Amino acid sequence: MVNYPNMKKRQMSVSQPSTHKHYTAHRGMSLEEDISLSNEYYLTTQKAVIYKKPTPIQIVKVDYPRREAAKIVEAYYKTPSTTDYNGIYKGKYIDFEAKETRIKSFPFANISLHQVEHLQRIIDHGGIAFIIIAFTSLNEVYLIDASYIIHDYYHSQRKSMTYDKIKTLGHLISQGFQPRLDYLKVVDEVYLKEDE
């Protein structure tokens, strides 16, 4: 069980398999797994250094059925997490969130206010901030600049950003073997074109 800072309790299941189909169902991978494999590829080819941020937790109770099988039974999030990934690419700081959705829109409920504020701070300080959104039912993954999500989060009358708007403002990420999701190709085209 993991308790969030506002003391709401949520059950956390680490070993249960996911029942929904991922956009990479033919490979059995989730968006997070694909990004992690892409980041490993970028690191081993010395293209970029980008890591998933660990979520800081305070362990409260551990069950020790056997010494080698210790299991965290109860923990609290110390602070709300910011975004999923950060690192450096071609001398530029990159910070981004990754989300999956089964519907043809990106609900703003999928991103929290502190994440929106964090992404805005990255932009304000000259970093590259974006969101990677996987539309699992369409087998499509987009990179969209965080500024578009931030704007609509605060100003849209809707509670989500439509697929069509993301398709128009965002950029389709090519899927392959190595890397699984070549999101840095989009970063080159969108953010670093003038630097080359």
**Uncertain regions: pLDDT < 50 for 5+ in a row?**
1-28
CATH architecture grouping: 3-Layer(aba) Sandwich
Kindly estimate the percentage of residues that lie in beta strands according to DSSP.
25-35%
Element string (H = helix, E = strand): EEHEEEEEEHEEHEHEH
Please provide the count of β strands: 12
The major pleated sheet works out as: 6 strands, mixed
Helix content: 25-40%
Radius of gyration: 18 Å
Structural class: alpha+beta
Short synopsis of the structure:
By secondary structure, the chain is of the alpha+beta class. The chain is built from 5 helices and 12 strands.
Characterization of the model:
This protein has helices at residues 31-44, 113-124, 146-155, 163-169, 183-190, and strands spanning 2-3, 9-10, 49-52, 57-63, 71-77, 85-89, 92-101, 105-107, 128-135, 140-145, 160-162, 171-172. The N and C termini lie far apart (48 Å). Helix content is 26%, strand content 30%. The radius of gyration is 18 Å and the shape is globular. By secondary structure, it is α+β, with helices and mostly antiparallel strands.
